[in-house]
Write a structure and sequence with these properties.
The structure holds 2 protein chains of 2 kinds.
Chain A lengths: L2 E3 H11 L4 E4 L6 H8 L5 E4 L3 H15 L3 E5 L3 H15 L4 E7 L15 H5 L5 E4 L6 H13 L5 E7 L8 E3 L19 H13 L3 E5 L1 H5 L3 H11 L3 E3 L24 H9 L2 E5 L5 H4 L10 E6 L13 E4 L2 H14 L10 H13 L15 H11 L5 E4 L3 H9 L8 E2 L10 H11 L5 E6 H4 L6 H7 L4 E6 L4 H10 L15 H7 L3 E5 L2 H13 L5 E6 L9 E2 L8 E2 L7
Parallel strand pairs in A: 2-3, 2-4, 4-5, 5-7, 6-7, 9-10, 9-11, 11-12, 12-13, 14-15, 14-16, 16-17, 17-19, 18-19
Antiparallel strand pairs in A: 1-8, 20-21
Helix pairs in contact in A: 1-2, 1-6, 3-4, 3-16, 7-12, 9-12, 10-13, 14-15, 14-21
Chain B lengths: L1 E9 L4 H11 L6 E6 L5 E9 L2 H13 L3 E6 L5 E12 L4 H11 L3 E5 L3 E8 L1 H11 L4 E6 L3 E4 L8
Antiparallel strand pairs in B: 1-3, 1-4, 2-3, 5-7, 5-8, 5-9, 6-7
Classes of the chains: A alpha/beta, B alpha+beta.
């Protein structure tokens, strides 16, 4: 039997888990682990410039690949800096394992240097956390962490490792388990057949159905099955912000996305539907608007791996607890052998009604012919064109996020990477880095604003160190656009602290780190700048695109109202 | 409505804080909470009394079940069950009132477990209503100190909460 120190066990366990990259930052409590890391080259480490970025890199890698991302940080500030990223992953159900150093167990509780109760701090924002009590527990705990993080409803798992658990001279038997089981944890592996049958009957009898594809479809790798089901039944499909790409946006059955800045047709169709089939969408407040007015005539079938997501905000009629993929496959099998044929004409009226609704707003926006200021929407449309709709779009948070989600049409799952639940500004840039590192041949774009970007711009340095040539599309409106929009709408345009008065010269800033920047101020400059940027395959290019600061995101749900109550422009209401 | 939820929990450091944290994090209410190891040293049994609408109680049980260290749970109020709480209470017992306190303790089938010339310390077991009724029968003016254990509960009949 092999004898290893705790520090060596950490690294060996990661090797045995086939982890290629970890992201982190060294410090006192993890020095033994970093020393073990340096003595091998199978697990590669990316040194970020702030621990928050490490968590977003790991998170975005997980979103793109479906495999858990891994972070290594030191105790105290290293751990607390990671908390925002852990919470981001938690809210969006992203598998992640975060290894945190801790002061030696003999000092815990004594307010030692760089001591933080990371078990306590992280507890509300993790799926689970572990504290290592003996070095020999390290391999099995790491195995459990990966198992918990990536099974059931995925989520982040923290392992707190006191420094004396990794002492190089204390060696113990190493044995990485093939698999682990926990008596208190057994996520559902398939849905209840009776419920699935009931759901299929409702689907066959529906006259105004809508399929609601959520993040659970994308995360559960069930997009192909969801698409097949929708096409088999000819049902209209709306994909939530987290579910974008879960059904192809170019498919005529796609209505756009629902909720606060969703399309007129998606929101209106949901409101008038008689059946909603939710596939891993959790009816959060940004989708439902006022819950008591939500879709009054709809029966709801809700497929979710997490029972607590079902009937949490909206009471459902047919709950199905299970993985989206297996439940959908079972539904497809039932439909295939059903003696009741799918009535092709049953939805004719519904579709013609929906096609009428499509004409009402249709994603229109007004171009600035007079002053020549670019509109954010046309920038995203140009980005879609230049990348042929096939890029990984890693977004920050704010108006640019909504515009990117509205105007970049995702045909594939796992291509739209954004902080949907927590809404973390500063997410987009490190997220793009995490994706680009693993998919070096893919186009990876960070769509950001000058506000969000400045929350993690230090990572320009990491990109220089590891040659990570992401493209940064910064929609620069010199203000915190979404805050400003709300101030315009609700606070008589008092722009309290939403104006960015002294922006850096992004040329000088990015060139200080060895990167390139291109400024775009007019429509004529836009396409040539994008062409130039995307032709530079091996360079990080920052596109500082000046846009109209007065633009608002529409449609927008009217607060405390139903799904059909929307602002369609600054002056037009439903 | 008031519910009594019994939970089998891995007997591990930090498991209790997850349960307590969950209640505050999700704005659920805890009225009483008791916890102790079971005959199986790897398991603790926790009893929590809470109140809320059916939807809230459904969320509480689902969210508790989601905690990795929760092995099993049951809402005892869904069936026939026995509920007990113990109280230790120090009462002023002087002059002619001393006899009256003794009589009231007997009526409630309590026991005087410690005595001084002016104080009775009484041990009383029962459901929450009984303990509260005792305090009002004695009169709050005579109560010097109380400590209640919180509710423990178990199902009647052959229903068993075990793994």
């Amino acid at each position: 039997m092999e004898m290893l120190s705790g520090a060596e066990m950490v690294i060996r366990s990661l090797q045995d888990q086939k982890i290629e990259y970890i992201y982190g930052y060294p410090g006192g409590s993890v020095l033994h682990i970093y020393d073990a890391l340096a003595q091998q080259d199978q697990v590669k480490h990316i040194l970020v410039r702030h621990e928050q970025a490490a968590t977003h890199m790991a998170d975005a890698y997980a979103r793109a690949s479906g495999k858990p991302g891994v972070v290594l940080v030191t105790s105290g500030p290293g751990a607390t800096n990671a908390v925002t990223g852990i919470a981001t992953a938690f809210m969006d159900s992203i598998p992640m394992v975060v290894l945190c150093g801790q002061v030696p167990s003999t000092l815990i509780g004594e307010d030692a240097f760089q001591e933080t109760d990371m078990m306590g701090v992280s507890r509300p924002v993790v799926k689970h956390n572990f504290a290592i009590k003996h070095p020999s527990e390290i391999p099995s705990t790491i195995k459990k962490a990966f198992y918990i993080a990536s099974s059931g409803r995925p989520g982040p798992v923290v392992i707190d490792i006191p420094k004396d658990m990794t002492t190089p001279t204390d060696k113990f038997e190493y044995n990485y388990p093939e698999s682990v089981s926990l008596r208190s944890y057994s996520p559902a592996t398939r849905g209840h057949s009776g419920q699935i049958k009931k759901a299929v009957e409702l689907m066959l009898n529906a006259r105004r159905p809508v399929i609601l594809v959520g993040g659970g479809t994308v995360g559960g790798r069930a997009s192909a099955e969801a698409t097949e089901l929708a096409r088999t039944l000819n049902f209209p499909v709306t994909t939530t912000l987290m579910g974008l790409g879960g059904f192809p946006a170019s498919d005529p059955q796609w209505l756009g996305w629902p909720g606060m800045h969703g399309t007129y047709e998606a929101n209106t169709a949901l409101h008038h539907s008689d059946l909603i089939l939710s596939i891993g969408a959790r009816f959060d407040d940004r989708v439902t608007n006022a819950t008591e007015k939500f879709c009054p005539t709809a029966k709801i079938i809700h497929i979710d791996i997490d029972p607590s997501s079902i009937s949490k905000t909206i009471a459902v009629d047919v709950p199905i607890v299970g993985p989206a993929k297996s439940v959908l496959l079972e539904m497809l099998a039932l439909l295939a052998k059903s003696d009741k044929d799918i009535d092709a004409d049953a939805l004719t009226d519904w579709w013609s009604q929906i096609n009428e609704w499509r004409k009402r707003h249709g994603g229109r926006y007004e171009l600035n012919d007079a002053n020549g200021l670019l509109k954010p929407q046309e920038v995203i449309e140009a980005l879609y064109e230049i990348t042929k709709g096939d890029a990984y779009i890693c977004s920050d948070v704010g108006q640019h996020q909504m515009f990117a989600a509205q105007y970049y049409k995702f045909d594939k799952p796992n291509r739209w990477i954004n902080s949907g639940g927590l809404g973390t500004m500063g997410f987009g840039f490190p997220a793009a880095m995490g994706v680009k590192l693993h998919y070096p041949d893919a186009e990876v774009v960070c769509v950001t604003g000058e506000g969000s970007f400045q929350m993690n711009l230090q990572e320009l340095s990491t990109c220089s160190q590891y040659d990570i040539p992401v493209k940064i599309v910064c929609l620069n409106n010199q203000s915190l656009g979404m805050v400003r929009q709300w101030q315009d709408m609700n606070y008589e345009s008092r722009h309290s602290q939403s104006y960015m008065k002294s922006l850096p010269d992004f040329h000088k800033l990015t060139s200080a780190y060895g990167h390139k920047a291109i400024t775009v101020k007019t429509k004529e400059q836009l396409m040539p700048a994008l062409e130039e940027a995307f032709a530079l395959k091996d360079e990080l290019v920052f596109l500082d695109i000046h846009i109209d600061p007065t633009e608002h995101v529409y449609p927008m749900l009217v607060p405390k109202a139903s799904m059909r109550d929307m602002w369609l422009s600054k002056t037009e209401r439903t | 409505m008031r519910h009594i939820i019994a939970v089998l929990l891995e007997n591990e450091a930090g498991a209790l804080s997850r349960v307590v944290g969950l209640f505050s994090q999700r704005n659920f209410n805890i009225e009483t909470l008791t916890v102790a190891p079971t005959e199986d040293p790897t398991l603790s049994r926790l009893t929590v009394t809470t109140s809320g609408s059916d939807r809230v109680i459904e969320q509480i049980t689902k969210q508790l079940n989601k905690l990795i260290e929760v092995v099993k749970l049951v809402d005892l109020t869904e069936g026939e069950h026995i509920e007990r709480e113990m109280m230790l209470i120090k009462l002023k017992a002087t002059g002619q009132h001393r006899d009256e306190v003794k009589r009231t303790v007997d009526i409630f089938r309590g026991q005087i477990v410690d005595v001084t010339s002016s104080i009775y310390t009484v041990q009383l077991t029962g459901d929450q209503d009984k303990l509260s009724a005792f305090i009002s029968a004695i009169g709050e003016a005579y109560v010097l100190e109380t400590v209640r254990t919180g509710v423990s509960g178990i199902a009647r009949g052959d229903k068993i909460l075990s793994i």
